[in-house]
Amino acid sequence: MTDEMPAPSTDQPPMRAQDYSEALDWPGYFAAVLGKEPRDTLVAAVDAFARDGVLEGLAIDLAAGEGRDTLELLRRGWKVVATDGHPDAFTLLWPRVPEAVTPRLSTLVATFANTQLCECDLVNASFALPFCEPEHFPALWRRIVSAIRPGGRFAGQFFGDRDTWAALPGRSHHSEATVRTLLEGFEIEMFRVEERDDAPDVRNPKHWHLFHVVARKR
Ligand SMILES: C[S@@+](CC[C@H](N)C(=O)[O-])C[C@H]1O[C@@H](n2cnc3c(N)ncnc32)[C@H](O)[C@@H]1O
Fold this sequence. Notes:
Layout lengths: L16 H6 L3 H8 L6 H12 L6 E4 L6 H8 L3 E6 L3 H6 L11 E5 L10 E6 L11 H11 E13 L12 E2 L1 H7 L3 E12 L9 E11 L1
């Protein structure tokens, strides 16, 4: 028997995708989300194209990550230019692309500051824009808008000014009014505001404030 106090437990709740995102640990993030389903905003945008009779356009998947949305676009017959700042994204993506559709995919390792965007039907930016450094955001948004053909769409998320991560350096967060201003020139098809707190028992609880957007360029 000993009367020493037991060492304090170092057990912590497991790291989740959001913990890797907060730390900008992209390989950790890719491993945490590998194989997840496509984002609702991407699915809604592609469904809207299908309703318009457009079944195989050209999409730019901006900051595509390990490729959950790119794989869905390819599955639905689209051509895709997938970009990301981290090369591991495409190391994970390419082996999961069916050989028959590889001619429809090109990948580009580039940062938001220097990504050139070709003319396209869809710019998909799922959970991507908040990670653009604020000094590069206005030019990136201008490039996004001018890349989308009239009748084309933007799909993705903007993070709000009440989100916990708005206080982190190097992030781009916007008020709802600013997002709506950015979307002038678009007909808004989805604008879903998500604002909630994490459960207190997760590793690093945060306040979420984000806007899920699908918009059609006039
Ligand atoms: C939260 S992940 C989203 C990935 C994917 N779109 C998804 O929905 O899962 C953010 C992505 O932004 C990329 N990223 C972060 N900073 C970047 C930068 N400065 N330039 C380009 N990509 C960047 C990361 O590599 C990562 O793939």
